[in-house]
Amino acid sequence: MRFFNRRAAAILTSSILAASASAQAPVTPPPVTPAAPAAPATLPPATATPMTGTVPLPSVAPVEPAKPEPRPTGVAAKVNGQEIPEVAVYRALRQFPAEEREIARKEILNHLIENYIIDQYLNALKMTAEPAEVDKLIEELKGELKKGSVDYQKQLEQMMLTEAEFRVEVAAQMKWDKFLKQQGNDAELKKLFDASPDVFDGSTVRARHILMTPGTDAAKVDEAKKTLAAIKQTIEAEAKKAADAAPGDAMAKETARTKRADELFAAYAQKYSSCPSKKNGGDLSYFPRVGAMVEPFAKAAFALKPFDMSDVVTTEFGQHLIMTTAKKAGTPRKFEDVKEDVRGVYAVRLRDAVVGQMKPKAEIVINAAPATTTPASATVPATAVPMK
């Protein structure tokens, strides 16, 4: 899993409406060619005595109805005194496989903390969502759910959301939408489009990375940075040796260099990385400039030539060493054709700007994870927490 991409954000962003989408939009199966009829089976001759009675079956214990998952209690964190309930983390956490939950929890909680910071910022700006506006949106939602034969109350229960909690989330999203519309006018969107052609033309890169997660201890962070810098230096030196030893022209030597660098980077990722991608040598496959990875990571990956390595990159998830392994160029687009994509990127950058300005000033208290946070099932409906 690309845990440092926006996977948790995507899970948290999914609204209750998304849960009804599959019910509303039936999938049309592709046409199939009927199979030829099978040859009739040869049956034994009927007996003169008809079978009577019932077929004896082994007895089994009655099937117990599935019990609802208990709603987690407690407080996961506080942001300027405002509590983030543990259940808010659990809604998203239960959708991750067990081996990914430790890292996923950090990502989910960080995203929730930032959401609270943004909502507090919007409240300070007097952005509002009137009760009548919230009522109207929820009634529209209920209508959409009904079309898909989805029960609104049961959906809330499955997602461990009370009606009051859901109203708060809807109001928060409405305030954000108003702020985004206010800030992201057409002139601002066009300015962003003109300044960032590679963001909107479909360009992608493929990269490997090594992640170290030293936490916030300064000495451990410094040690992680030194380790990653040493790994980079070793790979570069060994790759140069391979190039120098390779027979042939400059192209052959470059091929030897990149092959050796890629092999060594993958080996170091398997040994040192904290990311689940370590099992694939740190390979993250292809991703776009915006929307998949956090900004410092994406910016560094796109700036690299194939098989060159970054300096150590710091994100909220830890310290990274990145090697870009391939690039796919995009196709120039017109602003009018990608305007909604531009708006989406503007929203991400606006969110990052608010968080960057307000988070350092916030008083944040993170509590220890509960002793038992193992979800009963990873297959659950999308949560209704609307995210920016």
Automatic annotation (TrEMBL):
One Gene Ontology term of the molecular function aspect: peptidyl-prolyl cis-trans isomerase activity
Stretches with biased composition (Low complexity): 35-50
Chain coiled-coil ranges: none
Record domain PpiC: where: 202-326
Keyword Cytoplasm: no
Keywords assigned by UniProt, alphabetized: Isomerase, Rotamase, Signal
Keyword Ubl conjugation recorded: no
Family annotation (Gene3D superfamilies): 3.10.50.40, Porin chaperone SurA, peptide-binding domain
Region feature (Disordered): 25-53
InterPro entries according to UniProt: PPIase_dom_sf (IPR046357), PPIase_PpiC (IPR000297), PrsA_foldase (IPR050245), Trigger_fact/SurA_dom_sf (IPR027304)
Signal peptide segment: 1-25
Superkingdom of this protein's organism: Bacteria
Pfam families for the chain: Rotamase, SurA_N_3
Name of the protein in question: Peptidyl-prolyl cis-trans isomerase
